[in-house]
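INTERNAL AUDIT FORM
Audit reference: QA-55
Scope: verify that the stored structure record matches its stored sequence.
Auditor: D.O.
Record contents follow.
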Amino acid sequence: MSGDPLEILAAAAAAWGAPLDDAALARIKTYLEEVKAKNAVTNLTADDAWDDLVLKHAADGVLAAAVLKRTLAGRAATDKPRVLDLGAGGGFIGICLKIAWPAAEVTLMEAVERKYKFLNAAAASLRLQGLRPLLRRAGAGSPGSSYTTGFDAVVARALAPLPVAIGLAFPLMGPRGIFAAFQSDEPDPTEPETARALAAAGARVLESHPYRRPGEERDRRLVIFARGED
């Protein structure tokens, strides 16, 4: 796309309902510059072109902020909902979500130590209160403490096939928690493996949000799952 990618992102964010002021845009720029610099010496992402960093990776995090803010209204116990970025990688979803939604308390769970170290450095540089990297693999070891479970929302992108991701996410959620899964296409809840995962978790599809990244011509989905009895 032609034009300044950050300005394009700002227009998309406003349309999604997560407007970014100048300070937020500056933080996103600083963070993505750190990603690009670190990616030159250790692999954080295969997409390190500036347009991709802004309009693909940061855009998904901002979109998640807009959707979760609406969906958690009335569901979260406080006005500072706890959000987990599961398999945070370089932090695109969780960090950009936090920048776009400062009230959220965001945990970045990552199992790869070199990525976790980058998340720590980025969090310190951005000086955002309520942004916490965590070195942990979902599903490994004993159940976590109150710091690693009971989240109001768990969000994941490119973590694992959807049935596996459902199985990893639901034990980390609070009673009225939701799981937000980025999907390229609308998932079929009757597909056998997905149906088994939903049944095992006592889960159902709550909402499915179509969206397009700036410049794209087809819809993607952010699919929200909740417990069946909720």
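Auditor finding: record pair retrieved intact. Strands lie at 82-86, 105-110, 131-135, 151-156, 173-183, 203-211, 220-227.
Action required: none
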